[in-house]
Design brief:
Number of helices: 11
CATH topology: Jelly Rolls
CATH superfamily: B-lactam Antibiotic, Isopenicillin N Synthase, Chain
Distance between the termini: 26 Å
Radius of gyration: 20 Å
Structural class: alpha+beta
Number of domains: 1
Helix content: 25-40%
Shape: globular
CATH architecture: Sandwich
Low-confidence stretches: 336-361
Mean pLDDT: 87
Order of helices and strands: EEHHEHHEEHHHHEEEEEEHEEHH
Number of strands: 13
CATH class: Mainly Beta
Strand order of the largest sheet: 2-3-11-8-13-6-5-4
Amino acid sequence: MSSKTFELPVVDLASLQKLMDRDPLPASVVDAIGQAFDRCGFAAVINHGLKSIPRCETASTAWFRSPLTEKMSVAANGEPFGYFPMFSESLNSLEPPPEGLPAPDLREAFSMGPQHDPTARLQQVLQEKTNLREVADFCFSKTPWPDQMQKGDCRVAGEFCDSLKCFYEEASCLGQNLLRCVAKAMGLDERHFDQGSAAQEHTNSGRAIWYPKLTEAPLPNQARCGAHADSGALTLLYCGAPGLEIQLPGSSEWVPVESPPGSLVINIGELAARATKGRWRSTPHRVPAPSSLDSAENVDRLVLVLFVILAPDFPVDESGLTQGEYTISRFKRWGRVVKSEGETENEIAREQNGVNGKTAK
């Protein structure tokens, strides 16, 4: 890791917020996004208009501090949405260890998916293309919401669910507008991604991610979030605390990033990057473990994310590969599999004993 920090290019979205539906996109925003993605694949956006963030941040923190037994009632169980406990994911696909599997990530997460069913157009496509049926079932899987399980504090669960849904809807609207700017910056028609990102077509995924303060030293090369590149079209991320590191183009060095307080961090995903034919890349990023247990960075950390993921039949490139097929392949690669019942019981016991888990699963 570098001792220096990298200030993300800043994009002011104030003029974008004032647009009517068919107004031309602000050239200043389009140019700023293009320059930022040319430079590093990331940007910090200010005046983004997401009013749901403070409420969702507070509610998510309260829910993640609930007992593990309550959170496990909505475990993903091998599905794309639901609760992912500590040690159930390993995103470190870019820095494989010398031997064996990567150590599991030191974080928890709750993922949600689309709150709509496929449109009539998409249903027709799925009837005609049998290879996409499994993909659609995956992308439109139902989210198991904590407030429907009647376990634990109903007020905490209800506020968490409502606030995350609000964040998801707000961020999805912003994501579509940002994608239009991205398309324009690529030199494409600004509506190039519209069908894939439309309100009833997209398969966006929202995530609340919890990095608890560590009470035991991590394993060698273990990270809070392993090194990876995002697979969708665009990612919108909010975090009130530092920790994110990126690899700048042409460098293998990891550099901590800085962004203005209250800003959103956005980055280009692999799908949109492939549309540029090499001009942009989906920049590798990670969140390392704290340097020591008594370091300033060893604190609880809450992150809110929206992954802008297009309709499952949207083509990634000329090869015929679709967004849905690409999404499934990345899900499997990242090892998002919830542990067995016996392992979960051991996890609960460790929590009750105040142990953060030193053995890689």
